[in-house]
Amino acid sequence: MNSKRLTSLKYKITLAFYIILGMAIVNGIIAILLSQKLKTEIEQLVNSEAVKVTTALQLAKNSERLQIITTELNHYDTEEQRLTLLKELTTQWEYLLKDTKVLFSLETTPNTHQALNRTIDTQLYFQQQLPLLDTLTDSALQAKLQAQNIQANLAGMSSAFSDEIQAQLNLTHEHFHLLLEQKNLDGISDNLNQHQALSAYFHQGEHLFALLEEVKNSQNIVEINRLQREAMRLLIQMEEIVASMHTSDSIYLEWLSQIKQNMAGNDNLFELSRNALKSTQIANAHFGFQAKAAQEIATFTQELVDHAEEEIKIAGTNLKSDSTSFVILIFCGGILYCFFIWLTSWHFMAKGIIKPVIATRDAMNAIANEKLDTQMPTTDNLELQQMVSSLETLKTYAAQVKTMAETDGLTGCYNRRYLDNQILKELSYANDHNMPLSIVMFDLDNFKEFNDQYGHVNGDQCLRQIVNAAKSILQRPTDILARYGGEEFMLLLPSSHIEDAYKIAERLRETVIDLHIIHQGSSHSGIVTISLGVACWQPPESFDVNKLISHVDEALYRAKLAGRNRTEVFIDAR
Ligand SMILES: Nc1nc2c(ncn2[C@@H]2O[C@H](COP(=O)(O)OP(=O)(O)OP(=O)(O)O)[C@@H](O)[C@H]2O)c(=O)[nH]1
Known about the structure:
By secondary structure, the protein is mainly alpha-helical. The chain contains 12 helices and 5 strands. The chain has a 5-stranded mixed β-sheet with strand order 2-3-1-4-5, with helices on both faces. The mean pLDDT is 87. Guanosine-5'-triphosphate is lined by residues 410, 443-448, 451, 456, 459-460, 463, 486-487, 560, 564. Keywords: Membrane, Nucleotidyltransferase, Transferase, Transmembrane, Transmembrane helix.
């Protein structure tokens, strides 16, 4: 008894469909999640590393620009240039700070993070220095411009001094010629002394103006101090010369006074030059620091770029390996999906549906081909189980019909229809396998009289007894007993030679005699007897059923002719 729970085919197919659909959805979701992960990785790479590299490169570029500006700030001549350069310097520091902060927010490596933090501190420090630089450069420029004004004034003075003292020398020279004509020896002596003192005054003055001119180009405070000392010495010498000249002419002293005004005091040429030089040097030192800091930032950002490139390479390799894993995972997912489809198809479709359907079809075919011993398939499918159940009923009906179609209703042995088919098959088999086929035909002797004397009911009973007797002597399962017609019967004995068939026929005849069925009308001891004819087909005889039957019929006829209750064998006279 099948204890399995019956399930509807429709339910199974629906379930299989949902399993396959579910697997497809799971596979799809896995693929989407993985591709999303890859997409995120790529976006991270682009957003973080690419922005990092771009920002670092921009930072390096701005650092270089800052270095150029600091160099340019060492040489400015006008207030406008100074202000423009300082403004640009401020802007560049703002750019640097902004880009560094972007890098700081993107960088994840602790060391680089700290380094960026330090860079930000440096940049903030230098930004704080910008007002100081403004003051320094401003005072340097102002001092420089004032010094240049004094220089310009001195240049004019130098020229006027030269002209005026030269004119005085010329006057002295003309006065000398006059004294010479007058032969005024004392006057000539005084004139020569005055000329000599004036020449010395003139040369010292020119030398002094040359020294003051040198201050303009001096780049060193020590040099300026030396020039100042030298100039003071010359001035003192010139004062001594004026004192030695014993002249009441005030122009020499006035010149000395004018020159002194530009050389002494807080706003004199030397002081201003020194101040300008000092402020410029301090500012330049600051610019140098800034340039150095910018250089360090540029170097650092270059390292950052290299580092980021390295990270991009690593990320690229990781991405490649991730995409390989992705492909492998999708491939495995596909394999798994195929496996599940196969499993589902095999389990639900093949095993649960197709296999039982085929088994049911085969069973139906077998029943249609009269193989009524065919086992009915077992299935847990509700619809198929119903079909099998109906088939079982049909099989029973078919078995009954078959039995009815093949069996003689009176005696229970095979009927003529079955015999005709079977003898054809057996002869064909014998022909194919090169085997003999014997047949025995027997007929009750004087059965008409039996019927007449004992009635048809007893006649029928007699026939059944004879058939049972014939069945009892058949030993091989392949031997067949059939009613040929009326009171005539036939034994089909496959693979039996004529001698064996004859022995069987004789045994049957004796068995019938042993039945002792009373038959007053019989010519043999008052009991029912039978006459038998035996014929055998054996290769290489021609395949002819009718001929074989006519042979056995002829043998039976001879047995009847010869007096009945005997067996005659057909012997081919040819
Ligand atoms: N009771 C009964 N009799 C049958 C049956 N079939 C045929 N018979 C009878 O069998 C008899 C055959 O008679 P016949 O053909 O003359 O042969 P016979 O009397 O046996 O004489 P031989 O064969 O020459 O010995 C007939 O009377 C048939 O009615 C049957 O099924 N039942």
